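Changelog-adjacent note: as of this version, every example in the card shows the full chain rather than a window. The one below runs 428 residues end to end.
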Amino acid sequence: MRSRSFHVVTALAFILSVASEAVAQDVDAHVLTAMDCSQNGSNCKYWEPVGYDPQMKYPLVIYLHGAGESGTTNGHLQNFAGLLTSFLTQDTGRPKDPVFVMAPQCNCNLDTEKWVNWPWGMGAYSMAAIPESAALIQVRTEIDALRGRYNIDPDRLYVVGVSMGGFGAWDMIARHPDIFAAGSHAVGGGAPDAAPMMKNMASWPFHNADDGAVPVSGDREMFAALAKAGSRPTYTEGDSGGHTDGGNSGNPNFMPWLYAQRRGVPATSPPDMQFSPEGGQVSSPVTITLSSSFGGTIHYTTDLTIPSANSGTLYNGPITLTSSAVVIAVATGSGQSVFHAAPFKVGDSPLPAGAELMDGPVPSPPPPPATGGATGAKRRSKTGGMPGNPAAAAGGAGNSTSGSGGSSGQPRPSSGTGAATATIPSGR
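Full-length structure tokens:
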């Protein structure tokens, strides 16, 4: 009898073990390979690049999820929006490129707290009227803990976000332009009154014109304010698509553009809408070539108005500036409009009021103390996800060299085409 019971229990244990393995295989590899970077009782996960070498500096991408992924149960890992899957492989769950990826989770009571404590339906907001949220302050604590544990390049911290996270990404780079190199914001909104402080910041928001959940005006106003302040923003607006990530997760030029940006170095433009030269102090006169990789029709302005498919000057060939101006251009076609702007200081003539060139390289902040706060989870046996040649360049048109703020001798992340455009979970 005992022998029979033993065999029954053993068989049951085997069945449960097999079932458990089957369930584990069904769980996203991203969740299985996530490591812990929680601080002060929060929930924060990160992914370490394959073959991490402490003698090398690595970029860090911070992903801010939407409202529907709030809580404490890894909903931001299970319910992916397109942006996060752009950086991680589906088969191994590790970063596609030699970068660290962090995904903090906002344990928000959405009635009283968000990444940015502002109603989404109202679009843009005033930073002067809204203090930084406790949730984003917590994220900075988690960033510092990870930087204390790993060799993270202080010139290559990038923030990306979707919906509620799009608001959060705008807010983080606006309040801390001395920390971050670039931000990308999908279907969110920001604070136009912060634009003068962000002229050194690279930004590329995405939104759809028919978004019925978060007004497209929020990202439109941010682009216009940054252009008029002398920044070099890019903005992609889809003709349709509703409340989705706006297309950056499926744009093959997005990740090469992101990885090319450096803290305190003028932003580069993606091939989607590109200037040559990119702007800045130039001789008098200067000839500028505008181009679009998807073959859109280009219109431009030099009077600080925002061009469209039906306004501005139709681009038929290189344009020549004899005095300083902010050039704003849009390429329209293929169901989208891609905007870009850059200031051109021609000789001694002044730029328009409010527009300024960047101040120059930003001093490097002191490294955070080694806290050990980013607790590494048990390593998985899975490998892969990083290119076989870690020194592979980002590739794609529009990538810049490391610039005055870059890290010499550091391998560039490789490019990736990203995932298909994802619908944002309900609740934004």
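Structural remarks: The longest strand covers residues 152-162.
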